[in-house]
Structure of Biotin carboxylase:
Amino acid sequence: MFEKVLVANRGEIALRVVRACQELGVPAVAVYSEADETALHVRHADESVNIGPPAAGKSYLNVERIIEAAEETGADAIHPGYGFLAENAAFARAVTDAGMKFIGPSAEAIEKLGDKSAARRLAQEADVPVVPGSENVSSADEAVTTAEEIGYPVMIKAAAGGGGRGIRVAENEEELRESVQAAKREAQSAFGDGTLYLEKFLAGPRHVEVQVMADHEGNAIHLYERECSMQRRRQKVLEESPSPGINQEVRERMCEAAVRLAREADYANAGTVEFLVEGDEFYFIEMNTRIQVEHPVTEMLTGVDLVKEQIRVASGEPLSLKQEDVPFVGHSIEFRLNAEDPDNGFMPSPGEVTFLDVPGGPGVRVDSAMYQGYRIPPFYDSMVGKLVVWALTREEAISRARRALREYRLEGIKTTIPLHLRLLDDDAFRSGDYHTGYLEELLEG
């Protein structure tokens, strides 16, 4: 096991990793920007290091400074959390080059799976279904030729993309030519790589992902699926498991496909394989080479601490359980709490939390780095916490979620709690019959 772990992140995920380290008996080092000096992850860590000004590019994305902080404190491993540098192969390589362990997959695996075109090829080699599409396209003319082969509408996607960025939908040639240029600019700006590829656009699919975990001894397992179709602007709003939209036969095929891909990629550590689902068919879209925001959904269902498992695997230990040992009991739903005003176009709502009283009771979990008096900085992602519920049935989980959301008292900022309460009373959500475009349709209606 490691001597000391530096957590290269902020907010609730940094606090989550700090706690996991401490439960394993490993001291945790927090890093923070000047905007996060009073943050909870800093307070709870065994040590903390200021790594720069508020701008992420000068702090949480500053590879050199983070490596320096690890060396200064004697850390022998770095956990990247999610976002920021979590899927940056150059960062993973810099960590290992500095003689430390990166708590995640290898830089090579991140590169292979981070390039969406390469990941498609890998999936095909592992006999995992993919959406009809193309290799990389270098021009609008090439994109038009490809679109004519697979049929409109098509999605233009950034090869280095993620988080819904660098994606456009085109219904015809004119839209495609415009979209190629716009997507290329956005991808270049967001990822430093303007490479694009095309996929057939599926109308009304579900977005379902499978949690996988693998070690350095060739063992790989899945921890079942998460339903992630409730999205706004391709950003997940809530997640649940089991998916109410797939049957057991599809679940088994999809989970087995995810494990095949992990093996094909020589993957080690936690990862998530994302699929689009239409009827009984599913198609691979990408693999996220990190812990996910929504990992607590899986933890509530299986009882497996995914972050501790990440740390153990990175330290060289084998997986702590076999596939047949993974429980899958009840139903879990996670609600992302964003500091946004859903009644005002989801405008960001940074500011001071003047009053806070979090819900509790059986089957209720709150992952958050907020406290009363905490000032939410305007420099980072708007997600400030997650409410996760578990119950034996989906109906009971919905009822428990409604009670917990009503119990959540949060003043001083606007949040998406009212949106979640609205969704819990929505017929489509209650029936489980919703798709990736549903929430946008509901909000526009």
Remarks:
- Residues 104 and 361 are 33 Å apart (CA to CA).
- The longest helix spans residues 173-191.
